[in-house]
Design goal:
single chain, about 190 residues, alpha+beta, duf1285 protein fold, 2 domains, six-stranded mixed beta sheet, 3 helices, 15 strands, disordered N terminus
């Protein structure tokens, strides 16, 4: 069993994530540490992570932090076995940057290195942005965490869509996900 460091703050989060075994996902859903306040980390709408107002430039560090991210009823937190710190997420914490069709499955890649197979457990949903009227598509990644589907990836989904009744949708692993409002012309 890996020993967990009692270090606090950003250093403690990084150490706990590393101790969990590299890219494997630690069992953050099983950890119930005390809430230790907020940490100045913000994930912008475009998927860029900031610490104290400065972009986190090390991709490996962002990937590491993404493995200890958890969505609780009161918001997003970085969680270790010994502490829980709230962060700000402007939209979805991840961005789906690629999609491939492999047989009956749609396989997505995220900006933090996750591979997600859409299906009954990882649904695709589309909301309409109230300010712009444009679609905002999302993919469930894990345990309530979602990825905003990047615009070029959404265009690829639109090209794969088929008309069912009066709505356009894509299928993956036996599930059909509507991607355009009824009556929308994707042709």
């Amino acid at each position: 069993m890996t020993e967990v460091s009692p270090k606090a703050g950003l250093e403690g989060v990084a150490e706990a994530a590393k101790a969990a075994g590299g890219r494997g996902l630690p069992p953050v859903h099983l950890w119930n540490p005390p809430h230790c306040g907020e940490i100045d980390i913000r994930i912008r709408k475009d998927g860029v992570w900031f610490h104290e107002g400065t972009p986190i430039g090390r991709e490996a560090l962002v990937r590491l932090f993404s493995t200890v991210l958890r969505l609780d009823p009161d918001g997003y937190h970085l969680v270790t076995p010994v502490e829980k710190m709230k962060i700000v997420v402007e939209d979805a914490p991840f961005i789906a940057t690629r999609v491939d069709r492999e047989g009956e499955a749609l396989i997505f890649q995220t900006n933090v290195g996750d591979t997600v197979e859409a299906g009954p457990d990882n649904a695709i949903r589309v909301e309409i942005d109230p300010e712009t009227g444009e679609p905002r598509p999302y993919l469930h990644v894990r345990r309530g965490l979602e990825a905003l589907i990047a615009r070029p990836v959404f265009y690829e989904l639109a090209e794969m869509a088929t008309l069912t009744g009066d709505a356009w949708g894509v299928s993956s692993n036996g599930a059909v996900f509507p991607i355009a409002a009824p009556g929308t012309d994707l042709a």
